[in-house]
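Annex B. Sample input.
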Amino acid sequence: MLTGEKRRMQILQLLKEQGAPLSGTALAKAFGVSRQVIVQDIALMRAENHSILSTNKGYLYRTAESENTQPKRVFYVKHTTGQVLEEFLTIIELGGKVLDVAVEHEIYGYIQVDLLIETPQDARDFAEKLSACRDNPLKVLTDDCHYHTVAAPSEKLLDLIQQELTEKGYLI
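Annex B, continued. Sample output.
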């Protein structure tokens, strides 16, 4: 039986080698523990300053090389849950990537979650998960108002994304 420390070392190695998100459920199955144990392991590894992202697709190890060095812009938006897919596809079709979602909550403050929506399929998968889930999206906490950090290859593309989001009535 693995000790917690050895399991965390193996999880870290697996995340580094994988290069793609691994779900907590898959990690739990691979190590013969509960998903909650994996969540705790990830929290402990983050506390030790390991750069692990928690996305809607799973956990991902972020290396210095994988850091997004493209220009970024934060957009403050408001739309219905049914418009999430259209919003993401608008951004992606113009060359952007949706890095995260955040809300400014009156009680809890700034809450941010990594998304890493980079392809149309990522957007469709997220929208499908959103419609199949009983839980509400983060934006529900703030009357549908929320922020997205978007990265794109140039400031010009970010300007086009901003223009298109404005025309569609999403920008606040």
